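Hi R.,

Here's the chain you asked about this morning:
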Amino acid sequence: MAEMIKKLILIAAAVIALFLLQTSFAPHFPFFAGRWFEWANFITLPAVLFALFERRRHNLGWGLAVLGGFLLDIYSARFFGFWMIILLFAVLAIKLGIKKYVRLPSFW
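And here is the predicted structure, written out as tokens:
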């Protein structure tokens, strides 16, 4: 149990560090200032990757989507909850797609 809490704290700290990197450091570089970076940012990519590669019964992707969506909503010009809805929908689509179309080995 203590190991799981350490893992959650470490992942939350990493998401917050990525968020701070995105909001304070990345806008000063032209490569990160394009329109594409609005959707494929430092928070969206880890949320999608966690949803893709975590075990089927684990829910860390959902928590990462909620935390990342909340942090992105703080500095977003869109209505509050937009990024949280987008990230939760992405995790839902990935989870349902994996459940319906991917056959995993029996030990998974």
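One quick note: Residues 69 and 83 are 5 Å apart (CA to CA).

Cheers,
M.
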